[in-house]
Amino acid sequence: MTSEVNIFKTKGELGKMIRCFYNLVRTGEVVTYHDLLVAFDDGVEFDYPHSCHPKFNNPGKKAVMAVKEAFKENGLEIKSIKNGKTIGFQYMGTDKNPFWKIYHRAILLERYEIMRKCCDEKRCAQFFYRPFGKKEREYIFHPHKTIEYNERLFAIGVCEQNGKDIQRRCVVALDRIKGEIMQYERIQHKFIRPEDGEYDYLNHLVGISLPVNAEIVTVTLRAHGKYMFGLIKTKPIHDSQHVVNYPSWNEGREYGDFEVILYPNNEFYGKVLQMGASLEILHPEHVRNEMANRIRNLSTRYEN
Questions:
Q1: What is the enclosing helix (H) or strand (E) of 235?
Q2: Distance between CA 285 and CA 218 in Å, rounded?
Q3: pTM of the prediction?
Q4: Which residue blocks in the chain are alpha helix, DSSP H?
Q5: Is the pLDDT of residue 1 over 80?
Q6: Which DSSP letter does residue 275 get?
Q7: Rounded alpha-carbon distances, angstroms, from residue 41 to 36, 38, 182
Q8: In this predicted model, what pLDDT tens digit does every residue of 73-132 receive, in sequence order?
Q9: β-bridge mates for residue 167, sequence order
Q10: Distance CA 273, CA 271 (A)
């Protein structure tokens, strides 16, 4: 489910109010304007009519209308419930986070914009981060590049942790950041700049992961059949890809060969596996053997 307009991309006070109201109303509880304004003020109560609150008309009313309209566009209902002079709003659905995807995407895009600005202005960012399968840790991060791959957003740069050496070419997945990124204007920290040619390796990757002790190799791929040859020619595995042997249907040679120059990594093997039996790695031998091992390991999952 997605709304045509991502209301969570809204900036400023209205954006904050939209997020406040969404998080309150999606619980299924009745939410009043008073509840919304208190949440907007980080829990600070007030004892005067909500209509006198300085944020009631703008952005309060606009936020409620925007969220109600987004729910309606997606076939969901927020009921208006009147109790005397007080109006409350109640979400009637069972999915307690119906806009999770667009809400999450808006958060990631906001982080992406912060990282890009840090790159441009040569400033640091500070945040808590949890790598896959590891404990949460705090980073002082010096972003050098931002990358989008496979519908995920990343930043690459230098990571600093207390009591540990700095890590260059550190890849940060923005969906693994916990909480907010401390505003870069407030970080009084000398920015560590990228070295000349430090990120040239990205030109020789499928995706962004660089295996330890990896070497660039020329890989020959064989596409079996007219459909697979046309598919790989139209949608290359890598930017370096070129044809070295065209099929010859008249001669009965129903395959064609391509070459790519890259670091073989998980993303590369995954792309080849995705094409099934019609795409084959011919050489070098160690890359072909690695693919064969992966296929054997995969097949054992289906033996019983």
A1: none
A2: 11
A3: 0.73
A4: 12-25, 33-40, 62-73, 100-121, 226-234, 266-274, 285-300
A5: no
A6: T
A7: 9, 5, 20
A8: 888 899 999 877 888 999 998 888 888 888 888 889 889 999 999 999 999 999 999 988
A9: 159
A10: 5
